[in-house]
Amino acid sequence: MKTRRTPLLPKDSLTQSVALVALLVLGAIGVAGPSGLLAWGEHARLLDQREAEIAQLTAERDRMKNRVALLDPRHADPDLVGELLRSNLNMAHPDELVIPVQP
């Protein structure tokens, strides 16, 4: 025996269309949204870039920590102190000879 199909009412058709559009929008957001599949590559690239920047800043921080430790007033490194005096204050020992060099 054949069953008769009942025709869809306009209300049912509208409901199904709205549901389909909602599913398509959610799928598009899942693929191309800010945290979707296409954004993963960009996030991975930014993560690598930030990790390289962190490594560089960590090395610079360690260099500065070492320099601060060498300038501790209780036991300053005489070579570094002399270098800073000569470069920043234009000072020299009385027995040193300064020879100006033309660039």
3D structure, described in words:
The protein has 103 residues and is mostly helical. The protein is 67% helix and 0% strand. The model has no long low-confidence stretch (mean pLDDT 86).
Record keyword descriptors for this entry.
103 residues; mainly alpha; single chain
Q: Strands, helices and their partners?
A:
Blueprint: H1 10-32, H2 37-70, H3 78-89
Query: Which regions contain 5 or more consecutive residues with pLDDT less than 50?
Result: none
What's the Cα radius of gyration? 36 Å
> Distance between the terminal alpha carbons, to the nearest Å?
106 Å
Approximate strand percentage: under 5%
Helicity range of the residues? 55-70%
SS content category: mainly alpha
Average predicted local confidence, pLDDT: 86
H/I helix tally: 3
- What string gives the helices and strands in order? HHH
Q: Major sheet: size, sense and barrel closure?
A: none
Task: State the assembly state of the protein chains.
Answer: single chain
Number of strands: 0
Summary?
With 103 residues, this protein is mostly helical. It has helices spanning 10-32, 37-70, 78-89.
